[in-house]
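for the record, two folds in this file. i put them one after another cuz i was lazy. first one right below, seq on top, structure tokens after. the second one comes after a little note so u can tell where it starts
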Amino acid sequence: MTPPAPSSIPVDRIAQILARWAGRFIVFEGPDGSGKSTQFRRMCEALDASGVAYDSVREPGGTTTGEAIRAVLLDRANTGMSLRCEMLLYMASRAELVEHRIVPALNKGRLVLADRFVSSTLAYQGSAGGLPGADISAVARVATRGIMPDLIVLFDIDSDAAAKRLNPLLDRMEAKGAAFHRRVRDGYLQQAAQDPRRFAVLDASKDQDHVWSQLLAALDQYARERDED
């Protein structure tokens, strides 16, 4: 489903929208340079102000073991790492995150907000890297214990525009080249087309306030649709 065009949402409505996602699992996804992390921080600030109980996590990382894995994955000294090793390291970090952060938070009725999840692996190591999606999904079922996000917010942007936003000191994943990142974007859009009820696709090429308005509108729409199911 495509969220409605952004509109001005009064401040007193933001807390109401966010409260409807209590106990749910929301994932932010997007290519490097999409502005996803900026909106993630803004969402956390809004949740703090709203009083909604939540936990925010990032991938790879979020646990002691996961952060050690993150350092290995993003280190440009490890350019020779095989694609399967790369995928399995992401899944290992994810397994720790699910076990120690995500499941406990959901069991307490807290909203979980994640910066990346399985969709990233399907886009980066699958669509862009060449690993079969079926192999990735099989490993993911073990790593995640079958947990699926209630909503995946995809911050979509053309790869050329995204590249202009990146820090010139690129990490190992960011430095994989323009063709790779075009395949990443295509992979994300294919996932969204295959599962439109779980994906909200936002135009991340706009300014930050416009994207934030799109995000709030999408959260409002998807919450209402779930209430009607």
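(here's the note) second protein begins now
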Amino acid sequence: MTTTRAGFIALIGEPNAGKSTLLNRMVGAKISIVTHKVQTTRARIRGVAMEGESQLVFVDTPGLFQPRRRLDRAMVAAAWGGAADADIVVLLIEAHRGISEGVERILEGLAEIAKGRRVILAINKIDRVEAPVLLALTKEMNDRFEFERTFLISAEKGHGVDDLRGWLAGEVPEGPWLYPEDQIADLPMRMIAAEMTREKLTLRLHQELPYQLTVESENWEEREDGSARVDQVIYVMRDGHKGIVLGHRGETIKAVSRAAREELEAFLGRRIHLFLQVKVRSGWMEESERYSEMGLDFKDGN
């Protein structure tokens, strides 16, 4: 009889280290928000990858950074919580940035949670540096912390990712699969759809605004012809933000809606009718139900 394996793997690292790109590469579909802006992953997103008889449940945690606001603090708490609950922790760092202040802080935090926990290192974006730099960084990181293994990868291009996935598949605990074989994420479809719209807003808007808005799928209506109507609300902090999201003659919101709808249709393989509304809700960052929507604990923001 074939032995099945399954386990949780937490991806931790600084904002923009490439965790979401690696998750999407591992799972083979775009389920985590990937942008050039930092701190875009808010919830703990689980992606499920099959490798032979092993089921790998990846937890893409928010980036670890110095928190300033309640939302920041809740995101950092979620990241460390994801690491503490995992069978294997993967610390992802960027080859060209070396050991930054942020990585220093993560190494300190790892020392606290690592007892009895399996931690490996993945150095990402290896195509950006020369071999000697890479070797020196690998040595320095392993001198600082006893990683079980080190993998050199490019999440974007796929280099080394198969080796990493294969190793993880052989190391997760023996046991039954945790999810159906064809399931790639444990987020509700409403939340994945809201994340897709938020990503499009993040890509189009600049400065602080993307961090001061959130998107919720208020209604999801299945139609007889196989399509679905999805109504989403974009909550912003002030009236001035509403105008920015709408854009001149509504051009920004139309472009965001079109891009999000096309991506959602490609993801689901069917027709979607997406309707977006923008509402001002100045205190949404202090409302516990907004945190629940994102899979974060409101109390962790204290």
